[in-house]
Write a structure and sequence with these properties.
Blueprint (H helix, E strand, L loop, with lengths): L5 E7 L5 H11 L4 E4 L5 H12 L5 H22 L2 E5 L7 H12 L4 E4 L9 H6 L2 E3 L2 H13 L7
Parallel strand pairs: 1-2, 1-3, 3-4, 4-5
Helix pairs in contact: 1-6, 2-3
């Protein structure tokens, strides 16, 4: 049985094509999934607070204002999501993704983490909240396919 109309929140690292790979894989698998995410334009995300609400003299308050403005979108989309996928890359610190994972866990949302095996120790608490830990976007697609249809990958 195919479940229709799931919403998947894609959180985390913004410097690789992992979101595109998941979207393309889900489309190829015929999954009825709407993907949502935080703003992935780094400059827009950093500057949204001061661009909308006015300048700040200190960088701390600029960042604080931006984080709170971004939280309006992120928290709303996480609350609406059926599943939250959180990607951690090795090159940049994704503290916001760790927050998203914690927020999703507090809402009892199913979480899939996505990261390289080398990050397992650093992310053990985040992975502990996840229902699945994937190493590749294609594994996330297969997890979604199985959750939505009960169908295993053809190679299994």
């Amino acid at each position: 049985m195919v479940e229709a109309g799931w919403t998947v929140y894609l959180s985390g690292e913004i410097h690789t094509d992992w979101r595109d790979r998941i979207r393309a894989g889900a489309e190829a698998a015929g999954l009825d999934v709407a993907f949502v995410s935080p703003v992935t334009d780094h400059a827009a995300s950093d500057d949204c607070g001061v661009a909308i609400l006015g300048d700040e003299e200190r960088p701390f308050w600029k960042d604080h204002k931006g984080a709170r403005v971004n939280a309006i979108r992120n928290r709303t989309l996480i609350r609406r999501a059926d599943i939250v996928v959180v990607r951690f890359g090795d090159k940049y610190r994704q503290w916001n993704a760790a927050f998203d994972a914690g927020y999703a866990a507090a809402l009892d949302k199913p979480i899939i983490t996505l990261h390289e095996p080398a990050l397992t120790h650093a992310l053990k608490e985040v992975d502990g909240a996840a229902l699945a830990v994937a190493e590749a976007p294609e594994q996330v697609v297969e997890l979604l396919r199985y959750a939505m249809t009960g169908t295993l990958p053809s190679a299994a």
